[in-house]
Structures are given as structure tokens and as C-alpha cells.
Amino acid sequence: xANQYDDDYDYExxxxxxxxxxxxxxxxxxxERERTALQEQLTAVKSNLRERSVKDVLETxxxxxxxxxxxxxxxxxxxxxxxxxxxxxxxxxFRTEEQSQPTELSQDAITEQRINTSASTGITPSRDEDxxxxxxxxxxxxxxxxxMGIVGLGRNR
Length: 157
Known about the structure:
This protein has a domain at 23-100. It is 64% helix and 0% strand. It is built from nine helices and no strands. The radius of gyration is 44 Å and the shape is rod-shaped. The chain starts with 11 loop residues before the first helix and ends with a helix.
């Protein structure tokens, strides 16, 4: 009569290999070597990818590629590299896109700026200097005579 625990499985097939632990150690060493090789490959690929990302971001921003050696190694993503460049732009002496775009002023602001500049640096001419400037810039004899107040005198002579 068959017992419920009996199988058709042959236990002798497992025990025929007498060097079980030795084979396991060999398989473990082989797996560790493969893992180490794959880890080195992964490190090399990550390094190349980071170098390419840094180079692309520097070219996009128009920054000298020599700055790449100063970017910390823990910054890898292009967004992080761009943020680091903007943060340290003043240290390396270049302008970011935000800094290089001129700000547009309204016409009133431009006029106000001109008034403030002329008021702070300009010299108000006195009455005599103003008259001297007008006389010096006169184009005709009649204009000169009218400035000097001798309009009627010139015709009587």
C-alpha cells in the first residue's frame, strides 16, 4: 500500500554528486567575479554619461569646457548641472541667460532715468551764459542783432 508521503522522486540523483559544497563555492566565486565586472562596467558607463551631460550643458550655456573639472561629482543630471552653473556664474565670471537678457523699460521709465541723470550731473546755465551761447550759435546777422537788442540801430546807419 502506498503512503501519502511516497513520491516517485528518486532521492539518489541528488546525492550522486559528492562535491556539493565545493561546487557551490566555485559557483559563488564565479558569480562574484561577474558581479564585480558588471559593477565596473556600470561605473564606467555612468562616468561617460556624466561627462557627456556636463559637456552638453556647458556647450548649451556657452561656457568654457574647462569649468567641468570644478563641478562636483555628485551632480549628474543636466538640470542639476544647469542650476549649479547659474548659482556659481559670478564665481567663474560668465553671465547666465537670465543675466544677459536686457530688461525692457517703459518710455516713462527711460525718460525719468534721463531726467534723474541730467539733474544729478547737469549744470544749469546762468542767464549770461545762456545769452552767450545763443549769440555764439546765431546763424544770420538779423538773428544776432535781435539777440543783442539792437534791431532798429542797424538800419539807421
